[in-house]
Amino acid sequence: MTKTPEELTNDWKARKLEPGWYWIKNKARGIVPDNLIANDWMMSGFCNVIEVLAPCNYDHFADLRKKAEKYDRIKVNGNYPDKISKLKSRIKKLLKKIEELESDSLAKKEGEEIVAELTNENNDLRERLKECDGCVRCLRAYGVADCNGNNLNDLITKIEEVLK
Predict the structure, then answer these.
(1) Cα 113 from chain centroid (whole Å)
(2) What is the rounded distance in angstroms from the CA atom of residue 112 to the CA atom of residue 108?
(3) Residue 77, pLDDT above cutoff 60
(4) Would you say residue 7 has pLDDT above 90?
(5) Is the C-alpha dihedral spanning 47, 48, 54, 58 positive or negative?
(6) H-assigned helices in the chain
(7) Which residues lie across from 55 on neighbouring strands?
(8) CA-CA distance, 156 to 147, in Å (whole number)?
């Protein structure tokens, strides 16, 4: 179990700290590695050390570095994608999604234009049918019962249904 800086400093002052390399807080040089030999610091001297921060274990540091590299480069389908290639892949997917949304937007706009055009055409046809309604009623008023094989009363009924 790793000791806290307070515990390490107390052990050093009580002359119980094991000899070896430690990260220390030096009055003049800041945080530096130094070697404790016979309860005195090789480079800093006893009076220049403010605090003992942590053991300085380079083997542990090298192991951590190897683990970090391992997790940064996980083998996927025979490839070693790094973080940049993962980001590029994500960006590519997002750009494709944007294109799809823009395409859907264009299709929606085209659909709205078609609906508007059909609505205008429908309104024009309704206006013409209203004009025909007056003509058919006029023919019936003059006693004409049939027009091109169609009964005028049936035509008037159909026109009224459409114009509702």
Answers:
(1) 32
(2) 6
(3) no
(4) yes
(5) negative
(6) 5-13, 58-72, 83-141, 152-162
(7) 22
(8) 12
Condensed to tens digits (0 to 9), the pLDDT of residues 22-70 reads 889 999 888 888 888 887 888 877 778 899 998 887 776 677 677 777 6
Please report where in the chains the tokens 């942590």 appear, as a residue: 54
Q: How confident is the model at residue 80 (pLDDT cuts 50, 70, 90)?
A: low
Tell me the backbone φ, ψ of residue 110, rounded to 5 degrees: -65, -40
Closest to 21 in 3D by CA, of 58, 49, 51, 65? 58
Q: Which amino acid type is present at position 86?
A: K
Query: Is residue 55 within 8 Å of residue 24, measured between CB atoms?
Result: no
Instruction: Write the CB contacts of 39 (distance below 8 Å, at least 6 apart in sequence).
Output: 12, 15, 17, 46
Structure tokens belonging to residue 8: 């390490």
Cβ distance 47 to 62 under 8 Å?
A: no
Residue 22's φ and ψ, nearest 5 degrees, are -140, 155
Neighbouring-strand partners of residue 54? 23
